[in-house]
Automatic annotation (TrEMBL):
Pfam families: Ig_3 (PF13927). SUPFAM superfamilies: Immunoglobulin. It comes from the Eukaryota. This is Ig-like domain-containing protein. Residues 30-130 form the Ig-like domain. InterPro entries: Ig-like_dom, Ig-like_dom_sf, Ig-like_fold. It comes from Geodia barretti (Barrett's horny sponge).
Length: 139
């Protein structure tokens, strides 16, 4: 599974950068965390992926997609894939009433472009994560 963050502009959105952190687990298996930060004049979106830390034989690995938005007034966070709203996942509103965190877990066999869209009365912004292929090396 190759995880690649792509910049996707929305209203008032400017990409600030894409970051990768690579780690090895107890069995020296490499894992990477990819994070993209997108900002606007009225708030920001942080979009990240966390590949699996362990894969059981015969089981499909899972990836967790996380979209975090900050700013006010209160935001609505939605995930779409192939123009269809993805309803799995959980949404948690943190203690700060202007911060929303939405986490979506999916099976790696579900490839495609996943778009996180954050909107409120003041602005709308989106960011895309593309899931493709089989993980052969980190790019």
């Amino acid at each position: 599974m190759v995880v690649r963050l792509k910049r996707n502009t929305g209203t008032d959105t400017a990409a600030e950068g894409i970051y990768r952190c690579s780690i090895n687990d107890a069995e020296s298996t490499p894992h990477s965390i990819y994070v993209g930060l997108y900002t606007s004049g009225r708030g920001q979106i942080m979009l990240s992926t966390l590949p699996p830390h362990s894969i059981t034989s015969g089981a499909s690995p899972q990836f967790t997609l996380t979209c975090i938005s900050t700013g006010g007034p209160a935001t609505t966070v939605t995930w779409t894939r192939d123009s269809t709203t993805v309803t799995q996942g959980t949404q948690t509103v943190l203690n700060d009433p202007v911060t929303a965190k939405y986490t979506h877990t999916l099976n790696v066999t579900t490839a495609g472009d996943y778009i996180c869209t954050v909107s409120n009365i003041a602005f709308s912004a989106s960011a895309t994560i593309s899931l493709e292929g089989i993980l052969l090396l980190c790019v």
